[in-house]
Write a structure and sequence with these properties.
Order of helices and strands of chain B: EHEEEEEHEHHH
Shape of chain A: globular
Oligomer: heterodimer
Structural class of chain A: alpha/beta
Low-confidence stretches of chain A: none
Strand order of the largest sheet of chain B: 2-5-6-7
Low-confidence stretches of chain B: none
Shape of chain B: globular
Radius of gyration of chain B: 16 Å
Number of strands of chain A: 8
Largest interface: A-B, 23 and 24 residues
CATH architecture of chain A: 3-Layer(aba) Sandwich
Number of domains of chain B: 1
Number of helices of chain B: 5
CATH class of chain A: Alpha Beta
Mean pLDDT of chain B: 87
Number of helices of chain A: 4
Number of domains of chain A: 1
Mean pLDDT of chain A: 94
Distance between the termini of chain B: 44 Å
Structural class of chain B: alpha+beta
């Protein structure tokens, strides 16, 4: 079948979190954030690219004024030239004195989140909290306090709703497990 | 056994460039910690686990990594899964004798998931298991 006609939902063996389940929980997170950040005009920050799906639904479930910003960082590769994380797209806003809510799609080892929070804290925000949709705690190396969290993922490879396999499947509206032959 | 005997032994600190990692998976793990600015030590502590009747240490355990700010030891085992039972027993014993020590044991599956997380699943043969060790030694 031509790639353009292929329905990626057919690549999924099992749906773990349906779109309805995801949106219901995100609405609860949005309500909690609206309550906690009333009159604080928080700045929501996300790291490209996985977070965009979650961020789009989360921000629309928040009822108090917020602003949005995004950053991007280099991924580790064995030939990473500098040997350290590089910020490839920095924030457009200053966060000094702002109440920052850092939004992530998934936390695993905590290495990336820890690095980003350390970096952002040097810019002296008034406060900084973390909202994570998916928690995968099995290989956590760095404990990061999570003010808001959606779901705990099972210890298996999943895709959808921002989570990818080789850059694909982020656009699935649910979270699921790929068929074994597709993974191979 | 006397509680006095259950004292960790601090090993000499080795400079980063002089560390001889015993497996390629450990070298890559160290590079990833460096990348994210995590302060670590390689096998900085040996924990005696068993003593003979004369008080000599007959079994000890030196976890591979110590993450300084996190106060966390990490042991990586990507070799035969038969080793896991042995490692689990050692860690159970370590926790009995040194209850304040935080230690995590990563098995082959943990390490493979870790590689997937960084898009490096294609480097399994180079980094995981006995095959990686053979390539490394060759």
């Amino acid at each position: 079948m031509p790639e353009a006609e292929r329905d990626i939902t057919q690549d999924v063996e099992t749906v773990l979190f349906s779109e309805e389940t995801l949106l219901r929980r995100i609405a609860e997170l949005g309500a909690a954030i609206s309550r906690d950040y009333a009159d604080k005009d928080p700045l929501l920050i996300g790291v490209l690219s996985g977070v965009v799906v979650f961020m789009a639904d989360l921000v629309r479930s928040i009822t108090v004024p917020v602003t949005l910003d995004f950053m991007a960082i280099s991924q580790y590769t064995s030939d990473s030239p500098s040997g350290t994380v590089r910020i490839t797209k920095d924030l457009d806003h200053s966060i000094t004195g702002r109440h920052v809510l850092f939004v992530e799609d998934v936390i695993d080892t905590g290495l990336t989140l820890n690095y980003l929070l350390r970096t952002l804290r040097t810019r002296e925000p008034a406060s900084i909290q973390v909202c994570v949709l998916f928690d995968r705690p099995y290989r956590r190396l760095i404990d990061v306090p999570l003010a808001y969290q959606g779901f705990e993922l099972p210890d298996t490879f999943v895709v959808g709703y921002g989570l990818d396999a080789g850059g694909h499947y982020r656009n699935l509206p649910f979270v699921g497990v790929l068929k074994p032959d597709v993974r191979r | 056994m006397s509680v006095m005997r259950a004292l960790p032994i601090k090993n000499p600190i080795v400079c980063r460039q002089d560390i001889s990692f015993s497996h390629p998976s450990e070298h890559e793990f160290a590079c990833i910690l460096d990348f994210y600015g995590i302060e670590w030590r390689y096998e900085p502590t040996t924990f005696p686990l068993e003593w003979d009747k004369d008080g000599n240490v007959v079994e000890a355990f030196s976890p591979d990594f110590y993450l300084v700010q996190q106060d966390l030891y990490v042991e990586l085992t990507t070799l035969r899964q038969k080793l896991m039972r042995f490692k689990h027993r050692k860690i159970r014993r370590l926790k009995e004798l040194y209850p304040d020590v935080n230690v995590k044991l990563w098995n082959r599956k943990d390490y493979e998931r870790f590689l997937e997380r960084f898009g490096m699943e294609g480097r399994r043969e180079e980094l995981v298991g006995q095959e990686a060790l053979r390539n490394h030694d060759a």
